[in-house]
From TrEMBL:
Active site: C134 (glycyl thioester intermediate)
A Gene Ontology molecular function term of the record: ubiquitin conjugating enzyme activity
GO cellular component terms, A-Z: nucleus
Keyword Nucleotide-binding: yes
Recorded family membership: Belongs to the ubiquitin-conjugating enzyme family.
Keyword Nucleotide-binding: yes
Leader sequence segment: none
Assigned keywords, A-Z: ATP-binding, Nucleotide-binding, Peroxisome biogenesis, Transferase, Ubl conjugation pathway
One GO term (biological process): peroxisome organization
EC number: 2.3.2.23
Pfam families (alphabetical): UQ_con
Taxonomic placement: Eukaryota, Viridiplantae, Streptophyta, Embryophyta, Tracheophyta
Name this protein carries in UniProt: E2 ubiquitin-conjugating enzyme
Source organism, top-level taxon: Eukaryota
Organism: Sorghum bicolor
Length: 201
């Protein structure tokens, strides 16, 4: 709730700033310039915030609807989110909880969020050091119809069905391409246990 209130204040400040700039430019006879340069940027910014507010409210309302995903908005910046996702069953990631970081552009949802794993994971489509994810919907197959929740669901699906032919982790991809399923699963389970499971005291 704190994040919601903070972001709402920022949203209202942006609206007031837009109105102030419009009045000043109109007084100077520069209304056309304002509409051509400043206004489009402000419209995108406000539309992005409105969309994220909507998603925030949906997440709060449907917290128990998807037990595999927990989305969290940053307390001070609605363009930064994190998520906790559960490893899919019958995969080497089962039993693990993986943290994702979302950096959302001001052009969202026209542009996709930047998403990366904060939790180490051994997966052909995830860079082992940076957590970068190779997923088409986060690049050229993005659509404004996608939400942060559905992006999380797509990442869980990718965990269950890796694509070894477009690897960011070559070691992982090579194991799958060579048919060494047991070797891949052994490595993936080991890193899941080390990085994504609570330590037993």
């Amino acid at each position: 709730m704190k994040g919601w209130n903070t972001s709402l204040v920022g949203f209202l400040k942006t609206c007031r700033r837009a109105a102030y700039l419009y009045i000043k430019q109109r007084e100077k006879g520069m209304e056309t310039l304002y509409k051509a340069t400043i206004l489009p940027h402000l419209v995108l910014h406000l539309a992005s915030r409105a969309r994220l507010f909507k998603e925030y409210k949906e997440v709060q309302r449907e917290k128990s609807a998807d037990p595999d995903i927990q989305l969290i908005c940053d307390d001070s910046n609605i363009f930064k989110w994190t998520a906790l996702i559960k490893g899919p069953s019958e995969t080497p990631y089962e039993g693990g909880v993986f943290q994702l970081a979302f950096a959302i552009p001001e052009q969202y949802p026209l542009l996709p969020p930047q998403v990366r794993f904060l939790t180490k994971i051994f997966h052909p489509n995830v860079h082992f050091k940076t957590g970068e994810i190779c997923l088409d919907i986060l690049k050229n197959a993005w659509s404004p119809a996608w939400t942060l929740q559905s992006v999380c669901r797509a990442i869980i699906a990718l965990m269950a069905h890796p694509e070894p032919d477009s690897p960011l982790n070559c070691d992982s991809g090579n194991l799958l391409r060579s048919g060494d399923i047991r070797g891949f699963q052994s490595m993936a389970k080991m890193y899941t246990k080390l990085a994504a499971m609570p330590k037993k005291s």
